Queue: 2 jobs
Job 1
Amino acid sequence: MPAIECRSLTKYYGDVRGIEDVSFAVEDGEVFGFLGPNGAGKTTAIRTLLGLLSPTSGGAALLGHDATDPGDSRAARERIGYLPGDPGLDADRTAEAFLDHQAALRGAGSREALVARFGLDESRRIGDLSRGNRQKVALVAAFMHDPDLLLLDEPTSGLDPLLQEEFAALVRERVDDGASVLLSSHVLGEVAALCDRVGVLREGRLAAVETVEDLRSRGGKQVRVRVAEDVSRADFEVRGAMNLRVGETVSFTWTGGYDALIDLLDRFTVRDLEVVDAPLEEAFMTFYDGDVPGPGSRGRARGARGTRETGRTEESAPATGTDAAGGDR
Amino acid sequence: MSDRPAPWLAIARYEAAGRARGSVVLTGLLSGFLLLFLAFFPSISSAGIDLDAYVESFPPAFQEAFGIISISTIEGFLAVEFYQFAWLLLVGLYLAYLSGGTIAGDVASGRMDLTLSAPVARRDVVFGRFLGLVPLVLLLNVVLPVVAYVGVFAVGETIAAERLVAVHALAVPYHLCCIALGIAVSTLVSRAGVAQRVALGGLFALFMFESLAASSEYDRAGAISPTAHYDPSAVLVNAEYDAVGAAILLAATATLVALAALWFRRADLAG
């Protein structure tokens, strides 16, 4: 029995499309990632699965329970942890009072351990907490009843890198204990690090579902080679080599097989060779027409998160952009 | 799950606890307001003006709106100056306003997403949010009769304790109905601020309609307003206790909460 089974799920807000004909399954013990820019339908999909929105058509099952039936989905929600993208917490209550309430609604076997792990000061008013600390409160609420299925919408937004690591470790522990996870993100690295498979959402539709491994292999290999001979561009302008740069070191993205690469290099005396997976961003270019998933181009003004996201996009997008241009030269 | 409270009870407790300080402050303010008016009474009653003749000259609709039967006795004075105005109108409107923001506010802030991702039925939320405001109503109607009794005594008058108890006991169904009205609006209108104003404005419109209808040939139509079924003047001045009115208000309360649960069950939560 899959943890999530989504069958042609469609949600329109009046005439506005939220998601359309989204079908996928998250297997037991799997970490599945929703990847897409803001407005692609990630949050709509998750909220429809939770029954917060009723689907226009199609259906879904969570942990074997019909997600569109209020009574049946309630049984599923006993074992679900949810982290909203923008958690609505009570600013004027303390973290302790809020978590007490959440515990009364869902149970809280691991609350103390989680609070200690994330170093959360429960005595403070939620309104006085920083964005990262508020996110910790929401994380504790999502994980504290040891759910079998975790729905995490942009889980690491607002967390500093150290806490992102801690969060990733927590997810892996829960998965080792048998939990299944659906997480959404517009940050490719996060998805790649945690997920087994990735569903790419684009304008409300599931454009592709791929394993992270496939994506990596499709992204090709990044080759850096230093040879004894003097070389010119023409020596490496062969089929399968892209984004070629020739200098002291020759670097290119290799999309062909290993044998062909060895044949190519056989003509030279190789002094140094490095072959690594190409960045996942390149694999995703195919889905986004060169627009790497991320809010940089579309922009979402949400304070600290916006700044951070822009920073990330700058790291990846121009790099691939330059390479692509270089390949044409 | 056995050691967990019922979801509606957990929600009611949480909301009531969050409102505890505000409830105490409101009770204190209204107590002060009551005592202030009572302090005026000795000078008004000893001024030798025939106040009853004065108020009888008011238009019938105005007399009806403010339940003016008599104003020269302590009972009539309290009824007109405090209960008819503060208890019926002010507190009623405030409760409708407050409850109008509950469900709609939770949906708008995203709090509802977290609540409903737990094994909680939507009707649990409606019922819990309603119950969460009940302690405020009870606090007001338990503390204020004591304050009124002591206050009346302090200005050298006496009042039948039974009438004071009755005017507050009968206020409870009325106040509950105001909350239920707000909750129902809150499930229909998605924006919290709008829901609050619709609830408040709706109750005020009903009050105005009832007041005007009472002095017209359509006086029976005024019964649609909750304010028609709670008459502090009749209780305080004439010792008339309208048990039927209270029963109607309780039935209306139950109906409104049930309708709210029904509407909310089908609602999309526009996050």
Job 2
Amino acid sequence: MSRAGLVAARLLQIVPTFLAIGAVVFVLARLLPGDPVSAMLGDRATEEAVTRLRAQLGLDQPLWTQFLLFAGRMLHGDFGTSIALRVPVTAVIAERLPATLVLTALATVLAVGLAVPLAFVAATQAGRWPDTLIRAAFQVGLSSPIFYVGLLLLTVFAAGLRWFPVGGYGDGVAGHLYHLLLPALTLALSFSAVIMRNLRAAILEVLQAEFVDFARSKGLSRRVVLFRHVLRNALLSTVTLVGLQVGTLLGGAVITESVFAVPGVGRLMVDSIFARDYPVIQALTLVLAVIVSLAFLVTDLVQMWLDPRVAR
Amino acid sequence: MTAALLRVEDLRVGFAAPGGTVRAVDGVSFAVDAGEIVGLVGESGSGKSVTLRAITRLLRRTATVSGRAEWRGRDLLALPERALRAVRGREIATIFQEPMAALNPVLTIGEQIEESLAAHGGLDRRARRARAVELLGLVGIASGAQRLRSYPHEFSGGMRQRATIAIALAAQPMLLLADEPTTALDVTIQDQILKLLTRLSAELGMAMVLVTHDLGVVAETCARVCVMYAGRVVEAGPVGTVFARPRHAYTAALLRSMPQGGAARQPLVPIPGQPPRLDQAIPGCPFAPRCGFVEARCWTDAPPFSQVAPAQWAACWAAERVGAC
């Protein structure tokens, strides 16, 4: 199958995934105890007010009618109106999504940028002091909870040294990056530890391969042997790992956005769950699912590009 | 005798192991003349592959190597890394047993040939490509221009070994170290690859050290043979002489354990027992426990490697009796 055909097939696979997630998320949202009306009106609302609001929101309809309505609109790209915020869900998400995407992307770049060179040093110096030092440092990174790392960075670099803002999202590209650097670093630390460990092990394994000896026997320089022959083969498994971790990273963004007051979808999700804002919960879950699916697709493409044995 | 191209002297390789140092190679000496094919033959674990890899220092950091590997007046074992790299590939090339493992799976055959050419300089991109096609033709791979874009997994086993030979020949080495180059291949392909190697050696005037456990391969291709046992060379000489009249009990036993192509239906005689453990010092001859000619001093004194015939050396106390059989 050609590469273009493979990409098309993978994109088509996202459609059923999308529908299945839609159904699951519709049911799950309604399985949450409580409902948006009691969340909005409180305990002391009159019976009459509750009935009126339920009718207004369409919550008095049978569940399957609600689902068909939801599914029908969803296919047209209409996710309804937020119950809590009273604005179209698409508008809310469009406003909040960029911050989370930038945060996640920046965290990935930082994690990879931190992990790859250090894994390389650790593996080529395996068993010596640089290896021990790097592994110990990452062990600390891996075992520290995200919220704790976040608070620590916030206390030292924002509140203490005042190098970075305490929270918010800033204006313009530079402002966004400046505001998101600390939260991204928070997210990146444990992620990069996972990448570092995986890549270090992969490099050590590839170093044992006979093609490395053959490459050396050709008289290639150490640099060419390590980068061209070792690193490229070792990255194969790491690329998969990074792709699979995108979902985890989005989950981590929920905590990080709360700590750093970043107006992203992570916080939106938490707020919506508390408000039982069904339309927002549903739409947001779908959007995140699509992002994860796309991340898997990109992973597969990179994998194909790196490894000719895939796809042909 | 002319000055040898490669002269290995008292080569020793040890690997640290939990029970003590494993002496994988224990005082090996041999020489290779220009254009000559020398066989290094022995059972698995006799140290023949380790010997080969020690010459151009391809062994891991865990190996401790001593002795000399004199190459055109310089000791390869003492050469600085940079100077050694100029020898590797350019003057001494190596091919391995399992071509699929020796080729990098994510690079095309062309990239793997051309990087050899690039490492030793002198050609631009276009000339490298032309030379790569030429090399594939030399090892019998047709339509090289398209084959350059293939990946190793798209080749058959025999083609892969041909490709590694093309890679090894890229910089026109004077010596090819071949580590069991046919062992992983089908019997029919084995023969093709051996014929290719002998033809290339003759055409290019390239010397070769052929490591194998197969005496048939040695008989077919080599001029001289070194028989290895327990990390030592126990017998060396011209193939015809050694095979016709072995002087070491191990060589004799090895020849009896091998089917003779055209000979009468003689029963094969397997060698009883196992090769010795190499993590403990062996006081006498390492073959003594399995030897049919064993005498008292074999257990206590290591036999010297001495000349037993005009061009034949053996390390066996019973050389006279073995030769008389």
